[in-house]
Amino acid sequence: MITKETIRRVLQFTEDRDWDQFHSPANLAKSISIEANELLECFQWSDDDYDIEDVKEELADVMVYCIDMLDKLSLDADEIINVKMAKNEAKYPIEKSKGKSTKYDKL
Amino acid sequence: MITKETIRRVLQFTEDRDWDQFHSPANLAKSISIEANELLECFQWSDDDYDIEDVKEELADVMVYCIDMLDKLSLDADEIINVKMAKNEAKYPIEKSKGKSTKYDKL
Amino acid sequence: MITKETIRRVLQFTEDRDWDQFHSPANLAKSISIEANELLECFQWSDDDYDIEDVKEELADVMVYCIDMLDKLSLDADEIINVKMAKNEAKYPIEKSKGKSTKYDKL
Amino acid sequence: MITKETIRRVLQFTEDRDWDQFHSPANLAKSISIEANELLECFQWSDDDYDIEDVKEELADVMVYCIDMLDKLSLDADEIINVKMAKNEAKYPIEKSKGKSTKYDKL
Lengths: 107, 107, 107, 107
Known about the structure:
Four copies of one chain form a homotetramer. Chain A is mostly helical. Helix content of chain A is 65%, strand content 0%. Chain A has five helices and no strands. Chain A is globular. Chains in contact: A-B, A-C, A-D, B-C, B-D, C-D. The interface between C and D is large, with 66 and 66 residues.
């Protein structure tokens, strides 16, 4: 999915520009939200009539900042996703949640 | 970073619950923004005094929905990130942007 | 704070452009989030070094879409704020929450 | 729309709890985004099947933080909205934008 070379490129970009000083976890959290909303803007007035090139760029931006944050906090993406998926699987038992978008606390 | 098994687990979770019907690109964009803001909430009142366990969960949630969106739109994470990084490298030349958080259109 | 003339101007702007068709409650919720993140962008890399003119514009945009949503759903701002403030006052008793940013469920 | 008494109640709530220390403009911007996304969550999986009581609460929360920010920065809501509406009216001439959700830079 994402190769080591790509991750290195993303981190090198920051290092080359001496931007680590701006990349506090809080600023990266803001940045992920800001980019997520540029992605959302692709769907602001229509669910279906979106520009796929814009979507690709904005989704990439979200992931770039996720990579920065993982690095900043020395987190392993694979590990934290698996820990979370185990929780999700427990919170949403198949038999109870199948075909329903109901939130777990209202299931 | 993220293994094929993990991606399969994320996608299987949706398939097992028959939730693909809810996963329109627009709904996934909303979901990425919503989870990004739960991540942001970890830093709402302080930049430094955050709960790392909460951060791990919320960052994982953001990435899970990114994986869903990539799958939904048949996009390759590595490809779209590299295309975007090439643009970023061009927009932010090292000599001009080093040590500065100035946005490219004001450089 | 906000006069009736101003509200009328905001609603007239939409009517003149025949944009009511785009202003579903869901689209307005997306718009409020998108504008809130343009506001957040003013503080992306620094808490203190912001452009007050940008802040004024983006905060205005958030409020404009709030006015649109209130109108769309025939809600009264004063009423819903007072109902919510009564809840907040009960959730955050002064003696328990004074000087602390702790969320009510952890008080 | 929003009476002086309501604004006073919102500001008194903060003062009584000695929370002004947490209400930097940056933290309020984060808070507006966070609440905007709780509002967005009402429409996460469906545009039409929303809980109006939840919508009222979350929209109120967005406006409460807007009131806090206006106060913090000594801004007048009416003034900044009117300044922004004048810009919007110029950016979106009726004849060009009528019935179209196209962004001004692509009109």
